[in-house]
Amino acid sequence: MQPQPTGLRIGRIFGIPLYLHASWFIMFALITFWFSAVVKTQHPGWNPAQYWLLGIGISVVYFASIVFHELSHSVVAMHYKIPVDSITLFVFGGLSRITREAESAKQEFNIAIAGPLSSFFLGGVFLLIYAVSPPKGPVQTIAGWMCVLNLVLGAFNLVPGFPMDGGRVLRSIIWGATKNYDQASRIASRSGQLIAYIMIVLGIWSVVQQDTAVSRFLGGWFGGIWLAFIGWFLLSAAQETYTQVAVRNTLAGLRAGDVMSPDVPTVPRDISLQDYVQEVLRTGRRCHVVTGNGMAVGLVTLHQVQRIPRDEWANTSVQAAMIPLNSIHWVSPAEPVMGVLERMQTEDVNQMPVLQQGHIVGMISRDSILRVIQTRMHHTRFAEK
């Protein structure tokens, strides 16, 4: 369950939307500044404009390489009929928003390994460009740095810490050996947490002890801070993965029909939005089935009402704000609750009607699912004591 993409949409690649997160602009500026300073020390005879142009050029090509890396994951995922919603560039690099997990260990392995292999491929391409370019010129300078950066990017992503590519490779290998996805996920996430702590410690050490070999290898205080931040990000992601496994186990075997509320609140389609809001305030129910002539015709929520200007509520009926029945996100009573929760996050809805043979037989919400998770986890902890 990944977050909805946010940021500035700049285009599409192979039909996949490409976004720039707000944090990317900070990273782009820092990389440009850092490489401009490095180029200045390597080529002291160049003028300031050349330093900055080279810094910008390296940053642009570097982030293009990250797009290529993420696109490799996405293309392999789409080969396995797994939809890819977006690619987002942000402060830590890139993120392919693949809508669901792989169906087998082989698929997981191939999707994960595609990224590092693509970076190694680009490293080789830039090495070839470096070899045939005029010595000490701008093209050779960019190619040299991009060769190194792509090789480092590929090697770094193979570190077996989930959710990095290497962690996913590790999970796929354990999954294939044990045939147990949850066990593989737990081991990979624990590995990710361990590696994250190591990164954080090394990063802090590099900042505090700047004259050591470790600090010089990591690029001084800047590299140390950067490594610590990556470690912190990896730790959060690995812990989230571990939590998701626990949630998946907690919801195992549950169907939408087990969690739904059979009490389906309804409102007539000719009621005004003003009266509907009063009904919401009176009952606390924020989602209602809209009926007409005794039949369900749509669904209305407080969110839909808020899209209508408030001064029009008194003269506007619920029917004008509702979601038509044929456009409603709905579930069947037999659908696994974990799948329902993932759909709610993907489709950005808080509740769905449960339909059986075309009739609404109940409502299921995120709140009701979360209550089940909390109750079951509490019962499990109590039983273990």
Please outline what is shown here.
This protein is an alpha+beta fold. Helix content is 61%, strand content 14%.
Structure write-up:
This protein has 14 helices and 10 strands. The protein is an alpha+beta fold and 385 residues long. The protein has 2 domains: 8-251, no CATH class; 256-384, CBS-domain (Roll). The strands form 3 sheets. Strands 1-2-3-4 form a 4-stranded mixed sheet. The protein has a 4-stranded mixed sheet with strand order 5-6-7-8. The chain has a two-stranded antiparallel sheet with strand order 9-10. The radius of gyration is 26 Å and the shape is elongated. The model has no long low-confidence stretch (mean pLDDT 85).
Average residue pLDDT = 85
Look at the helices and sheets and give the structural class.
alpha+beta
* Terminal-residue CA separation: 31 Å
Task: State the helical fraction.
Answer: 55-70%
**Unreliable segments (pLDDT under 50, ≥5 consecutive)?**
none
**Helix-strand string:** EEHHEEHHHHHHHEHEEHHEHEEH
- Per the principal axes of the C-alpha atoms, what is the gross shape? elongated
- The radius of gyration computed from the alpha-carbon positions, rounded to a whole number of angstroms, is 26 Å
Q: Tally the helices: what do you get? A: 14
Strand count: 10
Beta percentage is 5-15%
Q: Biggest sheet: strands side by side, in what order?
A: 1-2-3-4
| Major sheet summary line | 4 strands, mixed
